[in-house]
Amino acid sequence: MRKIAYILSFIFLGAAFQSCTKNFEETNRNNNKVYSVDANDIFAGTVVRTMKLIQELNFNKLMNFSRYAVVGFATNPSQDIGDNYFSQFYVGILRDLLKLEKDYAGKPEYANRLAIVKTWKSYVFYMMASIYGSVPMSDALSVAGENKINFKYDSEQEIYTQVLNDLKNAGDLYSSSATYPNDLIQRDPVFGGATFGKSNLVKWQKFTNTLRLNVAMHVQNISMDLAREHATAVMNDDSKLISSLDEMVKLQWGSDESLSASYYYTRFIKNVTTFSEMTYPALGEYFSTYLFSYNDPRIGAYAMKANVMAPAGTRPMLYSDTLTRAHLKFCTLKDCPTFAAHQADGKNASRVDSILVEYAMPYVPLPELNSLAAGWEWAFVPGQTYRYNDPLGSKNSPYNFSFVHTDFVKENASMVLLNWADTYFLKAEAEMLFGSEGKAQLYYEQGVKASFAQYNLGGVDNYLAQNGIKWNTDGKGFADRRLLYRASIRGKGGRDNHLEQIYKQRYIADYLNCLEGWNLERRTRALRFPPFLANGGSSDVEGYNSVYNYWTERFVYPIVEQSKNTESYYNGIENLKAVSPYYRGDRWGDNVYTSLGFAKLNPDLIFAERIYGGNKIIKPNCEYFNKKYGKTYEEVVATAKSMTGETDENIALTKAFSYNFRSLLKTYIP
C-alpha cells in the first residue's frame, strides 16, 4: 500500500506541471514549457496512469474483445467518439515521457534513465498503434505555431519501425557504469522491488528486449523483413530476455481503497451493494472450452468456482443430464411403473434404466448477452411439444457463474504486461519462422511449463502428454453449447500447424492480459471465434449488423480530430485504407470493423452470412458438462463418495454436487 501511495503522490506532482488542456490537439498548441523535473519525480505517475488506462480499456472493451471474460453490459458493439482514451494516452502519459526523453537525450549521465523512458514510451505507442492503427507519433505533442496547423498521423509501419529502433537503442543504453551510480530511477514502480526502491537495470533491459521481440512478431504481416531483423538480433543473446518468474513485467496496485486500489476493484467491487453478473467479469464460454477440453488445471487460477461468491444457502445452477443405471435396485413398487411385470418375468438383472438427473458443475461460464441471433430458435425436444432451453440460462442466482478470480481484481492485485511464458512462446514462434523446428518445440514446451510455474501448479507433464498439447499432435476439443465453435488444436503437420499450437498456448497463458490476447488473434486468426450474436439489438456503430457482428478490429479516432487536425485526420484514414486487409467504408472509413495493417484477414468473413444469417434451429449440447461425474449412476455415486468421504450415497450425492433425480425416461434390456 505504501508503495502505490508513494507513486500516486507523484501523479499529483506531475499533474501540477500539466496544463488544463483536455484535447490532444489543444495540448499541441500550448507554447508554454510544461515543467522541469526528472524521472524520479514524474515517471512513477506515468506508470500508474498507464495501469489505470489498461484496466479501464480492459473492463469496458478488451475483456470481451479478447474473449477471455464476459462483461455483460459491454457485449454489444459500440464506438467511442470522445477523446477520453486519446487524452489519457497523450496528455496523461506520453506528454511526460516525451519531455523526459528530450531532456535525457545525448547525456551519458542519464543513459539508463533514457533507456527506461524509451521503453515505457515504446510500450505506450505499441498499445496505441494496436488499438487505433495510424496515430500521431513523430509530431506527437509538438508545439503549434503559425506554420504548423496539422499534426501528422504516422503509418503503422512508421510507428512500429520507430518503436523497434527505440527499443534497440534502449537495449544498448543500459550500463552499470560506476561513473554514474545514480543513473536509475530512485523510486521505481516497475522493477524497484517490494519496497519501491531503486531500479533493477538487468530486469529493465530484459523487459526492453522482450518487448522488442514481442513487437517484432507483432509486425510480421506488415513487414516480415522488419520482424526478422529485430527478432533474430534479440535472440542472438537471449540471456537478455525475461528468463524467470521474478523478471516478469508485473505492476502492483496497493491496498488503500481510497488511494491506491486497482481500477477493477473501485469500478465493480468497492461499495457495490447489489451483485450483478452484468458488471462483474466472468469466465467466457469459448475460452473455457479449451480449459475444459484439455483438463487444464489453470482454470482454478483464472476463475472462481461457480457459486463461490454466493451467500450461504444460495442454490447453484443445475445442469440436466442423462445417465444409465442398473434397474434391479430401483424396481420397487414406488419407483417402477411396471413393477409387477418385471418381478414376474425374471429378467430384471438384465434391465437398464435411462434417467434424467441434474447436478451442479464446478465451473460455469457466463454466456454472452444473447444466446441466439435474430431469426434463430431452439429446437423442439424430440417427441415433445416444448423446446430446448439455453443450458447456461437456467441460473438460480446471479452468483451461479464462475467469475474472474479475485487475484486479478482485488484492490492490491498485480497486473502482468509480459510474463515468462511469453518469452518462450515468442522464441518458439520466431524459431518456426526464421530458425529451427527443434528449438521451437523446446521453447513451446518450456512456455507451457513457465505458465504452470507462474501459478504454482503441478501436473504440467500430464497436460503436455495430451493430444493437441503434445507437439506435432492434433486434439479434438469440446464444442460450445450451440455447436458453433470447437476447441480443437491442429498441431500435426507442417509449420502452420505447429504455429497454431504455439499461438493457442500463448493465448491460454496470457489470461486477462487482454491487449495481448486481442492482438494475438487479430495478427494470427488462430482462434477464429464466432461473432457476437446481436439478436436484433441496436447499436451506435456504423456498419452494425443487427443479427451478428465479428468483434471490433480497432477503436475510432476522437470526433474532435475532424475539426482540429482535419488534414492529418483524413490522411490517417488513408493510412488505414492503404494497409488494411479488410477495409470498411462505413463512417467514412474511420470504422471499428476496419482491420489494421498488422492483422490478417479474418477468413470467416466470406462464410459469415451462410453460417449465421437466416433462420437456424439450434439443438444445444454442453459437451463439456455431459457425463461430468461418470457415464452411469453407479460411477456418479462413486465419484460423489470419493469427493466427500461420505459412505451414504444420497448424502454423498447431495453434498458433492447437489444431485437431483428428475425422472425415469425408459427401462430397457440392452
From TrEMBL:
Keywords: Lipoprotein. Gene3D superfamilies: 1.25.40.390. It holds the Pfam family SusD-like_2. InterPro entries: SusD-like (IPR024302), SusD-like_2 (IPR041662), TPR-like_helical_dom_sf (IPR011990). This is SusD/RagB family nutrient-binding outer membrane lipoprotein.
